[in-house]
Amino acid sequence: MAFRNPSLSSLLIGLLSLLLPLQYSSTTAAVGIRLGVIRKPSPDVPLFREAPAFRNGDACASDKIHISMTLDSNYLRGTMAAVLSILQHSTCPENLEFHFLWARFEPDVFSSIKSTFPYLNFNAYHFDSNRVRGKISKSIRQALDQPLNYARIYLGDIIPAEVKRLIYLDSDLVVVDDVAKLWDVELENKVLAAPEYCHANFTNYFTDVFWSDPTMAETFKGRRPCYFNTGVMVVDVEKWREGSYTSKMEEWMVVQKQKRIYHLGSLPPFLIVLAGDIKGVDHRWNQHGLGGDNLEGKCRSLHPGPVSLLHWSGKGKPWLRLDSRKPCIVDHLWAPYDLYHSSTHSLEEY
Fold it and tell me: Residue span of the signal peptide, if any (predicted)?
């Protein structure tokens, strides 16, 4: 495991080096805590069972698959489940390299990842919240306003230059198929690939202020813009850097602060800049909306068709609904991946 953050003070680096080795991967001998349940962390960080080791099949080459996710205590339980699901369904789990983005220094979060997945090959990078604090305007749900929610816009700046391509995933999902199939999607010279939903009313993602301004309304001229969810994306990070996509999105975030042209956090800048100009991916790779809408989070059913990835986007999160003893039916599909040590969820229990 490696930490990368040139702006972090030497004091924090020193503290971190005591907690975790500077390099840690699936090929490194296990170091540190190796118990079934990790040591008791701070009250904000739950305890997790240690996951089994997942090894490559005989036919695996050495090609890496890069996966990026955010990392914080609020969504750590979801992150743990997501990582477990990815490893469990991967033919070549040792080829996976995770890139976690963090905004707040939480040593217990990092040690939880290491001790829950002792063989995991991962890096952690600091996202400076100051980059977006003056650019975030209030959305319809507080969780969407957190600076770390905007880190996906800065992947090209944060991820090392040697990483040319990666899969970005939210923490409220589980993968039930080999993630290599998503990795192998042909981008066809596009900077981004994701499932598109062209049946959605695209105009709903922006305010009347946006559509009534002739200049802004012309933004999509020459494109057929379709909604896509930014919680599941294959990104050509090299093209992202070359095309200055971070700057393009920041420009729209500035407009948003001045005129309020949308309501949904970090999603609309992606839509403005890229909708209608991405590579569409089969819908099986993002069965999204399982958390319900952004205000009430009511239960929803699966969409028809095959499923490779289940995504609890929306207000309702499966771990919270399961703990409340009022789960939705789809939450039982998440429960088998829950590594929370006191969790007793099972399909038979409800």
Answer: 1-30
